[in-house]
Amino acid sequence: MWAAVALLLPGLAHAQRVALLIGNAAYQAGPLRNPPNDVREMEGALSAIGFKVQKVLNANQNQMKRALRDFGTAAQGAEVALLYYSGHATQVSGENYLLPVGATIEKEADYEVEAVSANAALRQISGARPKAAIVVLDACRDNPHASATRSTTKGLGRMDAPTGTAIAFATAPNTTASDDGHYARVLAQQLRQPGQELFDVFRNTSAEVRRLSRQEPRV
């Protein structure tokens, strides 16, 4: 995969690059501080290297699904399509879910109805068949609806990336990430560095985030 997307920074001056940034913070249960800041950091960095950026803040389920659908359209024929999500997310029965603002979750079955499947989001992007797709999940905070599920597993589970897709997590599977903005800030800094391939961007981001915190970013 890394060979397929070893391109990201200066080499594609005239290529089509599109990004969707989603930052959810205004949860009734477990509000977060940093997702809007995370999105601003990423927007600045991606715009600087030629991405056309769409951003959505504090989105409910319908807004998230529509944004993902529209992004799937925008990603058709793109050289690079990047999805970045900052907010609450969790795994339930082996499925990863991104949590919209306003979700009403009282029992485990409600996730399928009220949340957004991370795999469904991935399908929207991979189905558009960009030359390279990147999904960044800066999530895995403590689940504010943990009492609604029987599972005691923390964070997100592993995901299988389709061919031509790279998936990056702010922390290792089955662990949680803090709401401190380290990952987005460091990733944005690395994206702005000239002459780096994508693998270098995420490798350097992981090393610096480990230095700053106890998180273990993974790809």
The first-level CATH class name:
Alpha Beta
Which strand order do you get reading across the main beta sheet? 2-1-3-7-8
Estimated helix fraction: 25-40%
User: What is the radius of gyration computed over CA atoms, rounded to a whole number of angstroms?
Assistant: 16 Å
Distance between the termini: 11 Å
What attributes characterize this protein structure?
alpha/beta; Rossmann fold; 3-stranded antiparallel sheet; about 220 residues; 6 helices
Which helices and strands occur, and which strands form pairs?
Layout: E1 17-23, H1 35-48, E2 52-57, H2 61-74, E3 80-86, E4 89-92, E5 95-98, H3 110-114, E6 116-117, H4 118-127, E7 132-138, E8 165-169, H5 182-191, H6 198-212
Parallel strand pairs: 1-2, 1-3, 3-7, 7-8
Antiparallel strand pairs: 4-5, 5-6
Helix pairs in contact: 1-5, 2-4, 5-6
